[in-house]
Amino acid sequence: MRVWTQRARCGFALALVAAAATAACGREAIVATDALPVKRVVVYRNGVAYFERSGHVDKDEVRFKMKQTEVGDFLATLAVMEQGGSSVRAAAFPLKIDDEERDPDAPPPLLTDDQKKGLETVVLTLDGKSHDLEVGYVAESPVWRPSYRLVVHSGGEADLQAWGIVENLSGEDWKNVKLSLIAGAPLAFRAELGTPVIPPRPTVTDEGEVIAAVPHGETSLAQEPPAPPASVAAAPSPAADASPDEEAAASRTGGGLGHGAGTGSGQGFGNGRGRLSGAHQTPAPHLRKGAPPPPPAAKASPMPSISPPRNLRSLAAIAVEGGATRYDLPLPVTIPDRSATMVMLLSRQVSGEALFLFAPDDGVPDSRSHPFRVGRFTNGTPGVLERGPIAVFEQGAFLGQGMLDPLPAGATATVPFALERSIAIDLDHNFDELGERIAKIENGELTVERDRVTQAKYRLRNGGDAPAKLLVKHPRIAGARLFAPPPGTEDNVGSGTALVPATLSAHGTVELVVDERAIERQPADWFSVIADNAVKAYRADPKSDASVVQKLAAAWLVRDDIVKKRDERDRLSRQANDLSQASEETRRNLRAIERNKTAEALRQKLTARLAETAAKQDDISRKIVELDSKLPELGVRFSEAIRDIQLTVPVTTTRG
Predict the structure, then answer these.
(1) Which of 69, 258, 313, 454 has a Cα at 20 to 30 A from 364?
(2) What is the mean pLDDT of residues 341-354?
(3) Are strands 388-394 and 145-152 parallel, antiparallel or unpaired?
């Protein structure tokens, strides 16, 4: 791939001329002075940059010319750095007065050439002695923008490059400056200190960020790995033949050194893995005693990879200060005015792969039935990777582009870059309520917990000729927990999603079930089935309060007797109702044959049946009366049995 084999030059600063015009065309600098040249520039991602000017001064003042709009920022952020104490006595600047405040009879003031250009002068008054002076300040500047390249290899490894694009619109050339790029956007507002202000306070503006209309990726934060078993051998140490300078550079850049990493330069960018040497190296089979020499091995063609820099010290040093990631370029760079420069920030090997992600996106209608192709890798650097475009390559071919969201150190990014229509997915839901647990018993009232179950069933069908590894981005239900999730599931609480893995064979179909359960607390009738199940579960739990279990056992004897008698009364009531209906039917039949003299035998039979039914009704009524007299007494006994029970169980969060 030509894109990976062209070597970067000049400290890996690739100048991208944005316009042919330069400062010679007459464009005024935002802030300029002849006494102190720019020596250092720190660019942020919030529309400002920090400029540091330094030099030898033996005058009694230093004059800065700047745009009127920059006077406030200059005064609000001006910092003078000088050994032995500052020699600056004052910073003077003119005030801009509105025309309506001038004397109408006075002649209009004459404008200087600088005023015609909209420039003002800020004068730093010194003591007139010789000094090595450093002056720093903040001025508006375009944000620097990152750009990434990811080359995916087999075996779960990938090459990652990060570049930073810096644009100089300051009105002057940056010649041999120390350049630093800061990830993140600290609060910075426009301070109108150069203009007289009467309250209300100056307006604080925020340009915000433009959200790209691309499919959203997924970020999985780093988790603490499980402790390795005692039998696992220690990891190999770094290569013994790496020079101290190279080891220091690798430590600073996060590059890592190792031999045979497949880069073609004898050095690899990764996690510091290398071959064991000396006594720790296992002898080759053909060197063992009595072993025949092996046949000559065929040379394996190297996989296309990012061309790493020859010298690791040419990469930016990555540091995390105050929670912000900082990239310090080790070599001075020159960026002419009205031009852009792309500098390499890092180049290293990371854990990564290309797979599929089912994540329906409203901007891509077909994504509700088909997954995206995605690049997935882990940020192995010590700092945050800022939001920016990323190009994905595999086996020497360009796969597509995606947008990388801000990625913390140790987190894993899943970046969609294409839609895969050879895999189809449909979704169905099942709902249920399961489980009964005691939540609270107070003042004779019972509260139980139940699980509101939602099961999402994904049916995955692979129409391709090759197996496919797929992740389902499942939207999580607020307040619910995953119940027995499939192995390898990543529950990303911050984004409200879960990444559920699945493997599809060629032309295969798989059903993936994601079970979520939310807890509901509700009052329950002591004599309901829900209450019976909850109490029995509490009594069977060895962790339950023994005294409460004893009280519930005694109460439940009475409760079971009440339930039994209620069931018996209900059964008798149903029988009495059936007999009443039968008696009414018999009476209607008797009335129908009342004048039929030939139906005497039938009349006698129906009369006998009516008498038999009445006797049964009387017996059932007697039993119902007996039950009705016993149930109130049992109810009082049950109320007394549960009156002293006080129990509160914490809300369940991890059951299942």
Answers:
(1) 454
(2) 90
(3) parallel
